[in-house]
């Protein structure tokens, strides 16, 4: 597993990239340990794909350094970087069979044909496609193509594997299945992987760590749980799940302990994050450590696994609350216009800095 | 067309025929009728009744057989030169930036839209004795005898290649442009040099365009008349020239028609062979299930 204090395997330092006056990457710093699975998460235009392109050598950096195992990557030509890329639409070679596609990286590295063949078949076995070795690419399904692309990217055991939204073309159920498969393959092969996606649940499900990107910068790099529970900025909080952002001044009026607020203020973290699923209906189980408030229900939507409720506090602040079906039934009072008590434990409230917005 | 008229066959059949009638008429009058007439002449012109005498005459004449070989050689050489010049040119057009590609495209299409005769005469002026080319050659080699680049196979080949090159480059370039650039990037990211990526990915995937261009060049070259006649100066006897001679000099419509039919068959054979290769090249790595 990832050891925290070892020298990083990959180190990106002060990396910037701009083209035509547009700054795509700005002062990006990132380190990775060998074998780590890291996801770059962000909306389109946040720079995550550009970062991938700079690492693979198809976009140039205007400043900064990338080192892999002590080797200066930016000084290498793209074909000598020893990187396996899984492209968004797979980019499989249509005039070659499945086996020929997977053998390609080995052939260009001048392995003997027998050796190439053996290793290609070995990796095809890992992705359960060995029976498809002689098939043409056009005869494969989307999921199978995805696995060929994966096999081709890792077969030469590159120092880093890059994946650029590889699952975006697949439907939801296949996507979830492939998430597990990709992560499983990563665990078996131990390849250092950078994965790009704009889907936060995909990032959460697959990664050792997630780097959330916004406007060409990395806003936060952390484990999925830390990103979710302790977001550092409004952007990260908003991007991950259902977050209510409330200015801390408003929170003070609700009775939040002053000590917590003071600490936050001194760090310039002026916005509080209240997750929709952390807020509960105040039905007889109030604790002293809870922040309590009254709010008017404006909307209640049934989502199947829970109810999503929009509730207005005093003034212009409204919050979304995820109410478990069980609580909804027990209360029996959740309807539009009702004034209900809500509560949230103090320690579930986190404070974040304001992000630059797009 | 059939799907547009979901009524009974009895109603939509005349409707379809009515729609294609003008095109059909043009094809019959302009294409089928003349070919049928040539075919008829090749068998009946000699004695007024059916005979294969015209074919015997043509196939028995070393002059005509030589013309066959010259035609094939000229067409094959033109094609070879077109491939040698055209593939790198189309590659350059594909790989350079948009602005340079537009300039290169302009350089290809400008002669393409210029009349054939004009281009042939231009080459005549450049290549003739004491013309631009030979003056330049003489200034480099003052002792050399004054030489001519026309009235021989070389001159004809230069003219033919220049005229055919756009016909080769355009389909080749179109095929190369339609190859997803991500495939080239993928190849490079997987460790291939640019050259290997071009040779292993871009060229094989453009093969259909290259084959189409090659077929067009070869087939068109087989029937070329003006350029060999003007730049060959009577020394490059191609089939089309022999047909013309048989009519104007010997008034032998039978032999001319027989030559025409044989040329027609040759073109047909080349097209069928090209089609065969094209279909085969369209199926990489076994049968497609799509």
* Total individual domains of chain B: 2
> Radius of gyration of chain A from the CA trace?
24 Å
Q: What would the CATH topology of the largest domain in chain B be?
A: MetI-like fold
> Sheet bearing the most strands of chain A, described?
6 strands, mixed
Assembly type of the chains comes to heterodimer
CATH homologous superfamily of the largest domain in chain A, by name? P-loop containing nucleotide triphosphate hydrolases
Share of helix of chain A, binned: 25-40%
CATH class membership of the largest domain in chain A: Alpha Beta
Beta strand count of chain A:
18
Report the CATH architecture of the largest domain in chain B: Orthogonal Bundle
**CATH architecture identity of the largest domain in chain A:** 3-Layer(aba) Sandwich
Q: Report the span from N to C terminus of chain A.
A: 36 Å
Show unreliable segments of chain B: 1-10, 284-290
Give the amount of beta strand of chain A, in percent: 25-35%
Strand order of the largest sheet of chain A: 6-7-8-3-9-10
* Chain pair sharing the greatest interface: A-B, 35 and 26 residues
Spell out the CATH superfamily of the largest domain in chain B: MetI-like
Itemize the secondary structure elements and their pairings.
The complex is a heterodimer of chains A (about 350) and B (about 290).
Chain A: E1 10-19, E2 22-32, E3 37-41, H1 48-56, E4 63-68, E5 71-72, E6 83-86, H2 98-108, H3 113-126, H4 142-154, E7 160-164, H5 172-189, E8 193-197, H6 200-206, E9 209-214, E10 217-222, H7 224-229, H8 234-239, E11 243-247, H9 248-253, H10 258-266, E12 271-275, E13 280-281, E14 290-302, E15 306-312, E16 318-324, H11 325-331, E17 339-345, E18 350-352
Helix pairs in contact in A: 2-3, 2-4, 3-4
Chain B: H1 9-44, H2 53-60, H3 62-95, H4 98-113, H5 116-127, H6 132-140, H7 153-177, H8 181-189, H9 194-205, H10 207-222, H11 226-232, H12 239-248, H13 253-281
Helix pairs in contact in B: 1-13, 2-13, 3-4, 3-7, 3-10, 4-7, 5-7, 5-11, 7-10, 7-11, 8-9, 10-13, 12-13
